[in-house]
């Protein structure tokens, strides 16, 4: 295990442990980012690890000399096969030199690009001291040291993935990635609509349309209710998903506690993945569309969609057109 090494690093980069943790010998007490400290993009060892070691937060390469501050499943650990679950700056990657995530003494967490511009901030302020910690659930939390008041948490601002116990609410939404390899914001969204119904929407440059539940069904026919205005949806640890619009599903492996994630994939399909152990591969345990060609704008204009069981769908262009983007025939 790499833990002792990480422990040493964090003793160096964090301020001396506070009184509450200095009496403890448990090393995870030090795996936090304290006020006045920062994580550097140039140091691969500058990461936060959850006490159960399942999640890691740090700088993730998203392109040539381009990084995002992200949270990923610690295993598998190869640099370009990680499963990312959250990103702070997916649409504004930072330079690989001189960029850092800093927790200011004012309680603001900021991400600076190449020592200059601030590309992302928690916009928080606290008179009492605070620290940044990665919880066992995968939630990155900025919390005051003495009163344990949560100033900011990544669970409130999801990217394309919900983890178990991470609620989706009226203020949050999932936005798909651009492609399998491009983590920028794509065109598919999952959110509660004005009528309290949880919907998948294609929000492209030219058209916007809801496609799940199917637009030709009344909400009631789709088993949805618009009466409950609490607008909250949650996946529990055992694979039970419930939404306040009365939509529910159970994962195929419901009942056991596995590593799970509900991801709005770049192809517009919402999928629940699970795996038995950290070195196992992700298995789809539920998905919104069994036939991916039914997803809105699945293949873009001038194209045909074909269902390929091993991958999902395959797009090809009509005669006379050629592929520009993976989803566009021009
Ligand atoms: C990802 O896609 C966006 C939008 O098309 C583009 O601006 C960006 O350069 C792409 N990023 C990478 C790393 O290819
Ligand atoms: C699933 O979760 C909902 C909401 O927490 C709960 O009411 C329901 O009883 C759960 N179902 C099962 C089978 O555990
Ligand atoms: C509305 O949904 C929430 C969350 O699912 C649930 O706890 C609550 O009981 C529901 N309210 C009504 C009136 O059904
Ligand atoms: C929600 O679903 C349950 C079980 O299917 C049903 O009994 C109940 O009437 C539904 N509630 C609404 C408001 O549609
Ligand atoms: C997963 O694989 C890594 C490296 O191959 C190994 O160190 C670790 O013990 C494995 N973990 C499990 C739970 O099998």
UniProtKB/TrEMBL annotation:
It is a single-pass membrane protein. GO terms for cellular component: membrane. Pfam families: B_lectin (PF01453), S_locus_glycop (PF00954). It is found in: Membrane. SMART domains: B_lectin. It comes from the Eukaryota. InterPro entries: Bulb-type_lectin_dom, Bulb-type_lectin_dom_sf, S_locus_glycoprot_dom. CDD domains: B_lectin. Residues 33-155 form the Bulb-type lectin domain. Keywords: Disulfide bond, Glycoprotein, Membrane, Signal, Transmembrane, Transmembrane helix. GO terms for biological process: recognition of pollen. Residues 1-21 form the signal peptide. Gene3D superfamilies: Bulb-type lectin domain. This is Bulb-type lectin domain-containing protein.
